[in-house]
Design goal:
about 0% strand, about 200 residues
């Protein structure tokens, strides 16, 4: 059975060795030759960003964990097909996005929040509750985007990629990445406006 590192999640991320000692291309080359420690080092280096992207795409910590684990396994299996001229991080991110898309097709029922817990009514708690509700509404707005728009939006806004990088990751032009991100922003803004008006 293939042994792979568990991707990090929140505060229980596993501690990595002190930094990425070998250049990424050296680790990739070693991993392609079957060197599991080299591959594990690569995964430790990329796991935080992979998990962040997966969490924003799936909206569920358990689904994100599953998607990243599946992506890491698929990347391990696909390493022989990885082209050296490509950027490993870009290639891995594309696999994570595909894994999230697969996860969404098999999606479990969305977790619900218990809003019935009694809270003493004070101005501070009212602000906290409103902030939590706004956050949930924003998460819901993101989850309602098409997969294409959501992927572009998450990569640009949460993962910090430029539109050119988003285009390379998704296999589209830079202008198409800009359009998808802009449409996602517009859709989220419209949803949030409706929420504020309700």
């Amino acid at each position: 059975m293939e042994r792979l590192p568990q991707p990090g999640r929140g505060s229980d991320r596993p501690a990595s060795r002190p930094g990425l000692r070998a250049p990424s291309h050296v680790l990739v080359s070693l991993a392609r030759g079957g060197d599991e420690p080299a591959y594990e080092e690569l995964m430790r280096f990329h796991q935080d960003r992979a998990y962040l992207i997966a969490l924003r795409l799936t909206g569920n910590p358990h689904d994100a964990q599953d998607a990243v684990q599946e992506a890491f396994l698929n990347a391990w299996r696909g390493l022989p097909r990885f082209r050296d001229e490509a950027d490993f991080g870009t290639w891995l991110t594309r696999i994570v996005i595909n894994s999230c898309h697969h996860q969404r097709r098999r999606q479990r029922p969305t977790e619900t929040f218990d809003d019935t817990t009694p809270v003493s009514a004070t101005p501070a708690t009212d602000l906290i509750v409103e902030g939590q509700q706004r956050h949930r509404a924003a998460q819901q707005a993101i989850s309602e985007l098409s997969l294409d728009q959501r992927s572009a939006f998450v990569l640009h806004i949460f993962a910090g990629h430029t539109h050119a990088e988003v285009g390379r990751i998704l296999g589209i032009s830079e202008s198409a990445a800009k359009v998808r991100t802009h449409r996602a922003r517009r859709a989220i803004a419209a949803t949030m406006h409706e929420w504020e008006e309700s």
